[in-house]
Structures are given as structure tokens and as C-alpha cells.
Design a protein that fits this description.
- By secondary structure, the protein is an all-alpha fold.
- Helix content is about 75%, strand content about 0%.
- It has two domains: about 80 residues, DksA, coiled-coil domain (Four Helix Bundle (Hemerythrin (Met), subunit A), Up-down Bundle); about 50 residues, no CATH class.
- The protein has four helices and no strands.
- Helix 1 runs antiparallel to helix 2.
- The longest helix is centred in the middle third of the chain and has 37 residues.
- The N and C termini lie far apart (about 45 Å).
Length: about 130
């Protein structure tokens, strides 16, 4: 991958990281404000609890996205960005443009997902039944 493309991508990743950090901070502050309120009505409290649970779920997703972005920035800095961690081949530019935190090429990602699908199948397969 060309260094200008990596530089441009790094700038975009840093910008996106800042946006996610601000969004997470705002959501966290909103939760603290909600916690400070005393709500006597059972239905209103239930609604607020549901809202808080959903906000925490979104915050968790944003936190994971931030970790992936920070990791991608680190790989750019180390010169490892765009190289598949499994096979060592270059990850296609199109894949990186659409999913910059990609660590695997398409082939290795498909193999990983295939193995995960098989693992999930056997993890939920009832014990004692034949595997045919």
C-alpha cells in the first residue's frame, strides 16, 4: 500500500477516533445525569433503565471500535498495516478502504469464519447424537 494512502487513512482514523471518544464521553455524562434523578414512577424508571442498558451497549460497541482503530493506527506506525496476520500476504486496498481495522485478508477471514461456524455448530450439537 502506498504511503500517501496510509497517511490519508491514518488521518481519517484519528478523526474517527476523536469522534467516537466524544460520543462515548457524552453518553457517559448522560448516564450520570440520569442516575442522579430520583424517579418514583415504576414505568418511568423501567423506561430509563432500558434506555441506560441500550446506551451502555452502544458505548461498549464504540469502545471496541476505538480499540480497533487504535490498533490500526499502531500497525500503520509500525509498518505492518495492510499485511495479513495469518498468511503474510497484502490485504487488498478495497478491503482496507471499507474496513480499515482489517487484520486478515479475505481468504483468511473466510477460513476463520468457516471454522467459527463449525465450532458453533458442534458447541450447540446435542450430546449423544450421531454426527451424520
Amino acid at each position: 500500500m502506498e504511503s500517501t494512502m496510509k497517511t490519508d487513512l491514518k488521518v481519517q482514523l484519528i478523526d474517527h477516533l476523536h469522534k467516537l471518544k466524544n460520543s462515548t464521553k457524552e453518553k457517559t455524562l448522560g448516564l450520570k445525569k440520569d442516575d442522579a434523578r430520583f424517579i418514583a414512577d415504576f414505568m418511568e424508571r423501567s423506561s430509563l433503565d432500558t434506555h441506560q442498558a441500550m446506551t451502555l451497549m452502544f458505548t461498549d460497541r464504540e469502545t471496541l471500535a476505538m480499540r480497533n482503530i487504535e490498533d490500526a493506527i499502531s500497525r500503520i506506525d509500525k509498518g505492518l498495516f495492510g499485511i495479513c496476520e495469518e498468511c503474510g500476504h497484502e490485504i487488498h486496498k478495497e478491503r482496507l478502504a471499507g474496513f480499515p481495522s482489517s487484520r486478515l485478508c479475505i481468504s483468511c477471514q473466510e477460513e476463520k469464519e468457516k471454522a467459527l461456524k463449525i465450532h458453533r455448530y458442534f458447541a450447540t450439537y446435542p450430546p449423544g447424537l450421531p454426527l451424520s
